Amino acid sequence: MFSPEGPTLRELAVQALSSVEHGYDLLAPKFDHTPFRTPDTVLESVAKALGPLGPFEDGLDLCCGTGAGTDVLAGLCHRSVTGVDFSAGMLDVARRRATGPVERVPAGPGTPGVAWVRGDARALPFTAAFDLVVSFGAFGHFLPRELPGLFTQVHSVLRPGGRFAFPVLAPPRPASPAFWMLLGFDAVMRVRNAVWRPPFVMYYRAFRLGQVLEELTRAGFTVDLRALPEFGRRDGGSPRARLVVARRPDGATPPPAA
User: Fold this and answer.
1) Buried b vs exposed e over 31-64: b needs ≥16 C-beta within 10 Å?
2) Full-model pTM
3) Residue 111's pLDDT is what?
4) Which structural domain range is residue 228 located in?
5) Which of 20, 53, 76, 187 is the most exposed place for a label (fewest CB within 10 A)?
6) Which residues, 6 or more positions from 197, have their beta carbon under 8 angstroms from its beta carbon?
7) Alpha-carbon distance 142 to 132, whole Å?
């Protein structure tokens, strides 16, 4: 499950008994050697799907972690790319691994400037400054009741006509081992959070596509679902992976947070 460069079981246990922020600070130096990092196949598929929707000038990687998604934006945005995360440790790793400049200014023709900002996705420190917002693998850290505020925040930092995009994988079927593994993981996390403080919010089964689409629409987006063909289809014909593309309509203003 982990490479030799990844965290030990003891390090994972310490992380799991920490807050989300401190846990990721601890995990950051070895995060890219864990299964928690979004696979390159997903990143490449999303980049391919978003390319025809451009051009984009300024992009934001929401909950950027060590910057894997920021690399996707760097290939799509012409002027600037910003990664935002509330873990200082993850941002430190992202800065070190970045191949571009750290200042938010163009580095040269066709090369976007890159900036790293520490901030909470539920209270983003930006105005309507972006044409494209992406996020990879972060939504398990938000409870369902937090989605309206989160999506309203994203709506507010997009320019009119801007897009918010993220991949979603089809949930495993009840007959599969993955279904029971994820169910068991979520159950363990709920017990842990009931008996231990601070809480560590990470639930794989709480981010349900139907609710997500409803909340995006309520936040003022028009929403499109696009199959990611690289991952094929399930037995019933539905895609194994989709890209959610939520667009802020031209001239739209964000509704008040619920």
Assistant:
1) bbeeebebeeebbebbbebbeebeebbbbbbbbb
2) 0.87
3) 64
4) 37-247
5) 187
6) none
7) 21
